[in-house]
Specification:
It is built from 15 helices and 20 strands. By secondary structure, it is an alpha/beta fold.
Length: 476
């Protein structure tokens, strides 16, 4: 989708026009009083989108005077999403958005909902053009909207769509090395630096967790490093993002037993996709922050060579881990990456991972679970960003008593706790590999959806990109 921004009213109406205007002012737009009365009555009945077809052109009026919508950012985004569904159903290719309200925030929120919703993964259709969404162009008429704001939004949404594409790609089209290829192209496109540690370098770095999970695979593991370091960066020590890149998870020898539990496991790299997408948005919008992304990647397959329950592995930081469940593999590759991050002496580390079903069971798809040992200001900032973009977060307790649940009888720690507090014990496991300020974000619930929710698309939702972008934007 592309956009055009115009400062003046189009003069005369043509095609499809979305009008953002207060109800009392609509009479100057509609040629007949009965049309105005119809729209007014629809708004009074809490209709948020009202259509008037004048044959030569068409109006969609948005009822932002309705306090249920106008005072709720998320409802405005949802109205944008709903409007896009209507436009694509009608096979519209372009639309005019005319903002008389002089409220650039409402306009941006509405367009955000439209752009985020205008997405479909069509790569694997025989005739993809027949499945493609038709809406391609938004013409925006506003005296108040700044070009820099709409461009920033456009770049950020583009990064969300990129993230969804990565997450929706099946394992047959995205193994660990193919993911590296995508990241290398992204780095070249956005002037980021990219480095790939291959299997030999992973072995030389003693990343026992990543190597163990990879043992059953026919494809080698990959450890990807993206770096965004603008000359005007506000931080000397880097902020680091770590993303879990399990490109497919069978569960290993602890094979996933439940109905449909393996069907969505191509999405087990949604954390890696979100980290890559956040880096994309930050680089495209040239945020003055020094950022490094670490993305370990492999599939978790079953083979005669695979690691098995009862194995003990030596991690990057020298700790020995007793593996009691090979389906708790994400924390093993994340642990090596978190340990590797220490070499950069980071200011702060955030990791994003579809780490535990326990997180999703606790709070569903409405938010991610966060925990860690960072300064309170970082947690507060992350919570505020979650509300700003409606990618909400819920902080779980992180008491040391939970460490007792991952004590091992034969090694330093084991890779699972008991049947309780699974999301927290996974976080406590990761804590052993950090010596810096750190927040763990378990996105298992909202990162992959079985059905569309407003502008959050079925499959990979792109959760985390806007959250992380807003977090760093508000930090500078």
């Amino acid at each position: 989708m592309k956009y055009n921004l115009y400062r003046k009213h189009p003069g005369k109406y043509s095609g499809i026009n979305i009008i953002l205007e207060k109800t009392e002012n609509l009479q100057k737009i509609l040629p007949e009083k009965k049309q105005f009365d119809f729209v007014k009555k629809q708004f009074e009945n809490d209709k948020d989108i009202v259509e008037i077809n004048l044959y030569d052109y068409k109006f969609y009026f948005l009822g932002f005077k309705n306090e249920k919508i106008s005072n709720n950012d998320e409802k405005i985004r949802a109205a944008g999403s709903k409007t896009v569904s209507v436009l694509n159903t009608e096979k519209a290719t372009s639309v005019n958005i005319i903002n008389f309200n002089k409220d650039s925030k409402q306009l941006l929120l509405f367009i955000e909902g439209m752009m985020l919703s205008n997405y479909k993964f069509i790569r694997y259709y025989k005739e993809p053009d027949k499945k493609r969404l038709t809406l391609e162009e938004i013409n925006i008429y506003s005296e108040d909207l700044e070009e820099k704001d709409i461009k920033e939004l456009f770049n950020t949404v583009k990064a969300v769509h990129f993230t969804r594409d990565l997450a929706n790609e099946p394992f047959s089209g995205l193994n660990a090395l193919q993911l590296s290829d995508r990241l290398k192209v992204l780095a070249r496109k956005t002037n980021m630096r990219f480095r790939l540690l291959d299997k030999k370098e992973i072995e030389e770095n003693g990343m026992g967790g990543l190597l163990a999970v990879n043992k059953g695979s026919d494809n080698p593991p990959a450890f990807n490093i993206l770096e965004w370091k603008p000359k005007n960066a506000v931080n000397k020590k880097p902020y680091i993002l770590v993303g879990k890149g399990i490109v497919f998870d069978s569960g290993g020898y602890s094979i996933k037993p439940t109905k449909n539990s393996m069907d969505m496991m191509k999405f087990d790299m949604a954390g890696a996709a979100a980290v890559a997408g956040a880096m994309y948005a930050i680089a495209e919008n040239k945020l003055p922050v020094y950022l490094i992304a670490l993305i370990p990647a492999t599939d978790n397959a079953v083979d005669a060579k695979s690691y098995v329950p009862g194995d003990v592995i030596k991690m990057h930081n020298g700790l020995y881990v007793e593996v009691l469940n090979t389906d708790a593999e994400g924390r093993l590759i994340l642990a090596d990456a978190l340990s590797y991050a220490q070499k950069y002496e980071p200011e702060l580390v955030l990791d994003l991972a579809t780490l535990t079903g326990a997180a999703a069971y606790c709070i569903g798809t409405e938010a991610s679970v966060i925990m860690g040992k960072a300064d309170e200001k970082y947690f507060k900032l992350l919570e505020n960003s979650g509300e700003n973009v409606y990618e909400r977060v819920v902080r779980f307790p992180f008491w040391d008593e939970y460490k007792d649940m991952i004590k091992s009888n034969i090694a330093d720690i084991k890779n699972i706790g008991g049947s309780e507090a699974g999301a927290i014990t996974a976080g406590k496991f990761l804590e052993y590999f950090t010596d810096y300020e750190w927040i763990h974000i378990d996105i298992a619930g909202p990162a992959m959806l079985t059905k569309k929710s407003a502008y959050r698309t079925q499959g990979g939702s792109g959760y985390g990109v806007r959250l992380v972008y807003d977090f760093f934007k508000n930090m500078i």
